[in-house]
Amino acid sequence: MRLVRLNTPAPESLRGATVAIGNFDGVHRGHRVLIGMARDHARARGAPSGVLTFEPHPREYFAPKAPPFRLTNFRARVVGLCETGIDVMAVLRFDEPVARMSATDFIEDVLCRRLGVGHIVVGYDFAFGHKRAGNVALLRHAAAERGFGVSVVEPVHEGQEVISSTRIRDALWQGEPRRAAELLGHWWEVHGRVRRGDQRGRTIGFPTANISLGGYLEPQFGVYAVQIGWPENGRVVWRDGVANLGRRPTFEKSDVLLEVHVFDYSGDLYGKRAEVRFIDFLRPERKFDGLEALKAQIAADAAQAREVLRNLPVLEAGD
Q1: Omega before 11 cis (within 30°)?
Q2: Residue 72 CB-density burial (10 A; 0-12 exposed, 13-18 middle, 19+ buried)
Q3: pLDDT tens per residue, range 61-85
Q4: Which H/E stretch holds residue 39?
Q5: CB neighbours (10 Å) of residue 130?
Q6: Could you give the strand order of the β-sheet that contains 209-211, starting from the edge strand earlier in sequence?
Q7: Torsion angle, CA of 248/250/253/257, rounded to 10 degrees?
Q8: Each residue of 160-207: pLDDT tens digit?
Q9: Are the beta carbons of 309 and 279 closer than 8 angstroms?
């Protein structure tokens, strides 16, 4: 997959592409249906396939002081989109000129001049342009005049529930990572670099790999059964573990930290980029009277996490 920044027109070889448009936060099952339609349509036309997405997320631009909400950071989104089999990821920087761009100018400048689209695929609720004034009806009308096609994807459901990034965030805030995974089509992951902490875990026999959430959404604080992966010899090695996410009230800390104890591992992960999959919520975070009480509870948490992780379902994201 080729990554193209749309500060200038896209290369001539990519013009005429079938392009899916969206933020694609989480690259969930609904997104994959949208992207799969663009990919298959492009192959039938003998044209490139791609996505048009925005960075930063418009919500971050309009509410920079709001709590973090992202399901994926930029790096993880690139990885997820690459797995869909599209040819190009076109990234439009969401800044003041783009935020103030009218819907008509977005079509003329971004879709026609910079991208030169042959066909676009959007969701049923797609809105664009200044104050989200543009909609599917306007897009269809403009497309007929300018000679490109439009396909609209209806909602994708899991049971009676519409799959959306908002519903996935709600599941994580409620401590339901398995429900989030059903909607995503894959386990929810946090990507980050392992940093050096207080090393208190080593003193009680449970060393941890510590990762800051950064711009990621903060799910319900507590203890989770997890899997952690890191690169070794050109591939990602995955191990089971148990993690605490929160502010560590026993030690009167205030920053939010993800602390992962990796089962049956004694190596050094400091400085490595790691991926942590949230598998199951075990219990809320709480304060303990002392290290011995904490140590006993971690041992119980670890035993429960091992049992949870013994037989995991295989998740299939689909197209």
Answers
A1: no
A2: buried
A3: 999 999 999 999 999 999 999 999 9
A4: helix 29-45
A5: 15
A6: 188-193, 273-284, 222-232, 235-246, 257-262, 209-211
A7: -10
A8: 899 999 999 999 999 999 999 999 999 999 999 998 866 665 656 688
A9: yes
- Distances in Å between the Cα of 45 and the Cα atoms of 22, 85, 144, 293 are 22, 16, 18, 64
Q: Which CB contacts under 8 angstroms, 24+ apart, belong to 134-140? A: 134/102, 134/103, 134/104, 134/106, 134/107, 138/103, 138/104, 139/107
C-beta neighbour count of 147 within 10 angstroms: 9
> What is the phi/psi pair of residue 206, to 5°?
-135, 70
Report pLDDT digits (tens) over 255-269: 889 999 999 998 889
In angstroms, the CA 148 to CA 137 distance is: 14
Tokens of 318: 């689909």
Measured between alpha carbons, how far is 78 from 228 in angstroms, rounded to an integer? Answer: 19
What length is written for the chain?
319
- Which residue's entry shows tokens 């903060």? 218
CA dihedral 111, 114, 118, 121 (to 10 degrees): -40
